[in-house]
Structures are given as structure tokens and as C-alpha cells.
Amino acid sequence: MNTASDLPARKVVSRSPVRTVRVLNLPGIFPSPVECESSLERDFVFRAALCPGVAHLRHQPFQLKLRSGKRYTPDFLVRHLDGSHTVIEVKLGQKIERYRATFDDAAEQLRERSFRFAVVDESGIRERKAHERAARVLRYRKAAVEPALRQRVLSSIAPCQEGVSIDALKERAGASREDLFHLIAARHLRSSRLLPLDGSALLFSFQSAEICHEHRIENWIGAAEWPAHA
What we know:
Strand content: 15-25%
Strand order of the largest sheet: 3-6-7-8
Oligomer: single chain
Number of strands: 11
Structural class: alpha+beta
Order of helices and strands: EEHEEEEEHEHHHEHHEEH
Number of helices: 8
């Protein structure tokens, strides 16, 4: 199992004529493109891109040989800023139970390598439509914000460990909502887990984020470490 290479364990393929492999390029967030086999995987990547604890994301990172003799390729490997790793399987909730034996075996093997394992479904990824807000914010990633304005925003928010509302930060720094969305997408600012974007929503300095339990990808998405029944 090689976690150093950016190459996936196998080429992502579309399993039916109506499914399209999506390639997400998010330079400045992830150093290489991320491939997705479904819209649910795409929505996971959008959420992961704005998780403050995530340093790197790889699709289909390696294969595991299961006790059954079959091989299992997980969907994603997440490396956090603190150096820890979580292996993520993205699966529709109605399909999870039929793969329980596979996931139990994978989780045991990964624990032996000090990797966490989590299975995430649509209820976590799309909770309160957070994936739609993440996609909206990420569209502003390529926007231009003058360095002086960026510095005003960051200087305004830096002393505020409890966060500053979007409306208050706009007024303090003379910024627009679009400017703030760009700074979230560029990882200069961060929001809370479900990415509220109304005027009262709190923003925080990305640099002030401590990598804590909340900022692990599985908790950011709202998934328990597998096995959930353990």
C-alpha cells in the first residue's frame, strides 16, 4: 500500500453509459486533480476542499487484499495538516449494509497502519445543502482580490478568535460578499462545518484554526469512524 504516489490504484471508470467521470481541478487547495465517479463523490470533494484540517486528497489511493481474497479500492485518502490520515468510502446510505463485511475488514487493516476509516453517505455530505454552498463558494476561487483588501480583511479578523459575521467583516474591511467568498475558497478565511453564508454567519481566520477533532474530515462531514457499531 503506497500512500506517497499521487497516482490512483486504478483508473476511475464510469460503470454505466449514463455516468460521467468528473475531474475537479482545485489548484491552491489540492496539488493534483481529483477524479470522481459520481455526483455524490463530487459533492464530497467540494466539502473536503473547505475543511480546514485537510491538506491533501487523493482518489482511489491504493488496494487492500481482503480476507475473502477479493481486492478493495477505497474512494479517497485524506491527509490532514497534523499528518494523520483518514480513508473515506463514499456510499449511498441504502447500500452501506451490504458492504459491511468489506468495510469491517478494511477498517481493521487500516487501523493496523494507524489510518482511520469512515464511510460517508448523502445524509452527511449533503446535510442542509452544505454541498451546494461549498460549490457556490468554490466558484469564486479564481476571482481577483487586491492584496491591500485581502490584508484589511485578514487584519480585521485576526484578533477575533470567536469569529466575525459576514456583514460585520464587510463593513470593517470595505469588502463585498464576493470578496469574502473568494477568501474562503482561497483558504484565507474559514466558515463553520455547514458553511452558512447569510449575513450573520461567522467567519474565522484560516491561519488561526487549530487542527482539532472537529477539523478531521470525518467529523466535518458528520460521519463516525468505522465500524460505527464498535
